[in-house]
Amino acid sequence: MEPYETHLGVATALAVGLLVGLEREQTKGTRGGQIGGVRTFAVVALVGALATLLGPASLWVPLIALLGVISLVAISYAADVKKDTDRGMTTEITVIGVYLLAALAVSRGVIEPMEDRLLLVAAIGVAMTFLLSSKEFFHNFAQRVSRDDFYATVKFLIVAVIALPLLPNRDMGPLGAINPRTLGMLVVMISGLSFLGYVAMRLWGARRGLILSAALGGLVSSTAVTLSFSRRAKDHPDLAPMAAGAIAIAWLIMLGRVAIVVALIDAPLMRTLGIPLGAMFLGGLIGFVLTFRRSGEMPKMELKNPFELGSAIKVTFMFAVVLLASRAAVEYVGDGGLYLAAALGGSTDVDAITVSTAKLAQSTISHDVATITICIGIAVNTIVKAGLAIGLGGSALGKRVSLTGLLVLLGGGVGIAVVTLL
Hints:
Order of helices and strands: HHHHHHHHHHHHHHHHH
Number of strands: 0
Number of helices: 17
Number of domains: 2
Shape: elongated
Distance between the termini: 59 Å
Strand content: under 5%
């Protein structure tokens, strides 16, 4: 037994009771009902701790105390129902939760050492207080999430949480290029990055500022941002400077995504890839400074939920094809074949070629070759998106986006040259 373990446990229980009680006290006048103020929760916490400490003397004490708290809560709730008080059961459930947290704080042999137990109690207490104080936030969030978004997310989570652990974790297929477990994890990782941007846009909207909107859109798809702003600039040429800046921001975010994905798969590869990536980022940043000027209104960006199950299946198939093509290119053609595969893959998507190359860099190809391969994919993707901007956005936008694209390509070329010379 640690010195003052009992005292620290009771103190932690009391602190949690006071914290939760303070939050309930502040909302007492707006939620109806009479139960649940700062003193009530503090006393419930002390009762829970005391009853648990008396457990070795009689096992009935903690049980009777808990039943007593539940009975008082039920009586209070029933009285409020009779008065037609419009309320839920959040406070009543919270009272019981505080009692159980206090009991856990002084319980020995459940979670050891003491530091871990008290830290867990404190963390749960803080999380509980956050949930209680964020009622408007969660209600607004629920209203902004469509039913289709919710079902798409649940379906994808079924794949990520239930189906993914069941996938075999071994190399399979031609050339042993496909590991189903690894492939599934990569899909979840890429979709997760995109989902962060999608959720943020649903919460704060696409019109909360140019930089925020373009950056969040870039997390989902830099190509979608390019298409959205290009179409608007075609109808309204005066928006070209703003659209060019937004597209540059999305491209910069895309480069950041590549760095994150590579760092998660094969962190040592960033020692060489970081140089051209940084140079391309600098080129894109210069392009943003040279082309951006705020004017007009934000165009509406149509972005689909990246957690939609059909999209996840398509992404999985695409990753598998690129992984197999890249492994075959290295096996039968050599580095030249891998470069060709990168060019073809980069014409539609950067993530797939980034993931496949980073996987190959772990055991099959050198980091220099992997760096050149990923840069080729980014370069081709940049050229394709610049072509879309020129074709869809008109000459005013095309000139600005072409300048940014040229600076990105120039930065990549300089970076590869530096890597080659090192």
